[in-house]
């Protein structure tokens, strides 16, 4: 885990499995190679951030951005997990999970119904980012994670906005992916049952951009929106 | 919180806010009415289940089914959280979160970029379901949550399959929703900046069903798939 935020991971390198990144079931679906993990992370922009508050788990959806081997999350300086990441030395233990659903898997048997999906689970310690340059790069990455190219086509954050925003970072070190693909795995004795069986593909679909009601005339939707 | 799994919630009833269901920011987006919460839950089938293991948070994607005021989750009897829910008296403290992304909100300023989304966060204690009738109903609900009507059109679980499946339940008691809708909230002084601003709608799209390679001839895709 020597990669920095500026250095691409060596090709073919994998994350080292640990006790908590080896799943207790469906181990054949686990992946540890960086290429798979990065591809799953890069296709999304919403993660589910888990942390512990007063001994109980909390899971909140939030945006993320990836730069190299670091995930960045942000929020108001008043938000609870961000405060905790700053207050707690040496940081806030978190689990960040990103999930894409690719298909509904309908088997003949109710039991073998499943989903095709790709997910990444990152365990680690989130720490507040205080370096101003890193904070700016992180906030750009968060915007570009949602719409690639957008950060360069918007007004950069002002000093006041930067001061109101907390940024936390989580190193990609204890990481696993889980991937299910393919059709249903029915038992051989069920194959002739009179139930349809197969996969219904699922993917996010982006609609035509809706301009803001107060958009100044003559500003067309940018070309990068067509890439979504 | 007197509703049972068999009784619809009284119309207009709301969940009682608690310390941990009142967000620390964007409170105007919080919702506590059952109608909103149920609608968000019923539109999805994947949740992110958070629990604490060895003092650290764990967040895993998994399927759920709702029956009345109860969420059901399932897994192999060997899976860690399911084991913990059975072992721990009086159950496993969990947080279950369901999130739908409805739109990418592009503001003139990087700072005001956002998402339109609807999410539900449920705090509580998950308990293993041991009653066989409730377990069967729960597993049907899990299948029907993904594809309404499907449980009646598949082979029911055998005794062996039931024995291999752990089911946990989580009462909808400490619950909140969070909803953002509408366009970007740019600052007035940014309205004339030369950046496109608006919303890109997002929604899951379902493709044409792909029959299993070994599907017996003459079985057409069922009509309920067209309702997805």
TrEMBL record, chains A, B:
Keywords associated with the record: Oxidoreductase
Species per Swiss-Prot/TrEMBL record: Streptomyces toxytricini (Actinomyces toxytricini)
> Where along the chain is composition biased (Low complexity)?
1-13
What lineage is on file?
Bacteria, Bacillati, Actinomycetota, Actinomycetes, Kitasatosporales
Q: Which InterPro entries match?
A: Pyridox_Oxase-rel (IPR024747), Split_barrel_FMN-bd (IPR012349)
| Enzyme Commission number, as recorded | 1.-.-.-
Provide the protein name: Pyridoxamine 5'-phosphate oxidase family protein
Region annotation (Disordered) ranges: 1-30
Which molecular function terms from Gene Ontology are attached? oxidoreductase activity
Task: State the source organism's domain of life.
Answer: Bacteria
